[in-house]
């Protein structure tokens, strides 16, 4: 269990409890057991006895699945803003808590024309702000002054976001793009049109290396903070650059979209730390999209990823019923738009 949830293996760290790094039961609790301190006192099963450790009770709620705040719980707060990150980090990191805090926060990054790193999801500012133009074509001043969703919040820099997020909350940095023409992993545009025999398959990610040089600035910024960091992306060119050219020590995940087999191929091709599929790929749930993935219904992405010691983190979850089905299907982490939906089944 710990090995397949080795989210921070690339950093050499092992984190216990409900994090992307893993949740595991120890086979040797002797150091934790107060009955092993040389005394003759025996543990008791008396329900009236409050002297025993409540760690097991806490574990029951902590181990269900890692809560990843998608863009800072985008269904509740203005996405990818300082205010959203502050709110997502408030509370306690277990499903029993009165307010369920995020274990990890997911945010998106693009470079500006000045080479700064902006936290924003879309390429075009007009998609979610009062400004216009593509992030990577605009000077930093214009990008960072754009108001997000009439909220009073503006587009933050990566430094501002990481300053806001507490050290004990992990950060999943989703890498977007810094140029107009870049290929997704296999060059497709729609999962329904994906064809493994299609000539659009993308075989030379190294050709895009120049367009991914801004990733060095991004990882250098992230390295200045103590949070556990995961880098993820849909773009194979970014993964190739991170593995072959960019100087960093962070684990990398592949965001799946077109094909179940594609994600497994990427895991076999690169030193990935996780696979992050959409809900539609998860079998044995009502969300499974048998029409889109009709040619791959014999591939169980959760089982295949776990066979490769890779955690599976599913996006984007919006209801308590989806939470329960995904946990039952074996998902390790859940990208949530709403924090509280993970509490229902736990309680």
List the helices and strands and how they pair.
Layout: H1 55-62, E1 66-70, H2 82-88, E2 104-111, E3 117-119, H3 140-144, H4 158-164, E4 170-175, H5 215-222, E5 229-233, H6 236-244, E6 252-255, H7 260-269, E7 274-276, H8 301-307, E8 313-317, H9 320-328, E9 333-336, H10 343-346
Structural notes for this entry:
By secondary structure, the protein is α/β, with parallel strands linked by helices. The protein has 10 helices and 9 strands. It has helices spanning 55-62, 82-88, 140-144, 158-164, 215-222, 236-244, 260-269, 301-307, 320-328, 343-346; strands at 66-70, 104-111, 117-119, 170-175, 229-233, 252-255, 274-276, 313-317, 333-336. Strands 1, 2, 3, 4, 5, 6, 7, 8 and 9 form a 9-stranded mixed beta sheet that branches.
Primary descriptors:
347 residues, alpha/beta, TIM Barrel, 10 helices, disordered N terminus
Task: Give the helix tally.
Answer: 10
Q: What is the strand content?
A: 5-15%
Poorly predicted tracts of residues: 1-59
Distance between the termini: 24 Å
Shape-level CATH architecture: Alpha-Beta Barrel
Number of strands: 9
Query: Which sheet architecture does the biggest sheet show?
Result: 9 strands, mixed
Which fold does the CATH topology refer to?
Answer: TIM Barrel
| Radius of gyration, whole Å | 21 Å
Going by CATH, the homologous superfamily would be Phosphatidylinositol (PI) phosphodiesterase
The level 1 CATH classification is Alpha Beta
* SSE succession: HEHEEHHEHEHEHEHEHEH
């Amino acid at each position: 269990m710990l090995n397949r949830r080795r989210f921070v293996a690339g950093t050499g760290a092992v984190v216990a409890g409900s994090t992307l790094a893993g949740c595991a039961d120890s086979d040797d609790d002797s150091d934790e057991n107060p009955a092993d301190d040389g005394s003759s006192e025996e543990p008791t099963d008396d329900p009236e006895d409050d002297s025993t450790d409540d760690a097991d009770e806490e574990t029951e709620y902590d181990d269900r699945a890692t809560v990843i705040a998608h863009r800072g719980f985008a269904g509740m707060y203005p996405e990818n803003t300082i205010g959203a990150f502050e709110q997502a980090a408030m509370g306690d990191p277990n499903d029993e808590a009165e307010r369920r805090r995020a274990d990890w926060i997911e945010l998106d990054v693009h470079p500006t024309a000045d080479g700064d790193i902006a936290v924003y999801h879309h390429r075009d500012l007009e998609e979610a702000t009062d400004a216009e133009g593509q992030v990577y074509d605009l000077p930093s001043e214009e990008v960072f002054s754009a108001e997000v969703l009439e909220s009073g919040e503006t587009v933050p820099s990566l430094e501002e976001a990481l300053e806001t997020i507490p050290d004990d909350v992990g950060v999943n940095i989703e890498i977007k793009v810094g140029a107009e023409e870049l290929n997704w992993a296999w060059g497709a545009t729609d999962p329904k049109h994906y064809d493994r025999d299609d000539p659009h398959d993308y075989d030379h990610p190294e050709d895009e290396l120049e367009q991914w040089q801004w990733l060095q600035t991004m990882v250098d910024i992230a390295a200045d903070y103590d949070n556990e960091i995961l880098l993820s992306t849909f773009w194979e060119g970014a993964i190739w650059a991170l593995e072959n050219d960019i100087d960093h020590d962070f684990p990398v995940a592949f965001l799946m979209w077109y094909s179940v087999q594609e994600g497994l191929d990427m895991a076999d091709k690169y030193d990935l730390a996780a696979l992050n599929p959409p809900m539609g790929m998860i079998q044995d749930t009502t969300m499974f999209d048998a029409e889109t993935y009709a040619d791959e219904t014999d591939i169980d992405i959760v089982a295949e990823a776990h066979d490769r010691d890779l955690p599976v983190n599913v996006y984007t979850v919006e209801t308590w019923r989806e939470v329960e089905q995904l946990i039952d299907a074996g998902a390790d982490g859940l990208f949530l738009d709403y924090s509280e939906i993970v509490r229902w089944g736990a309680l």
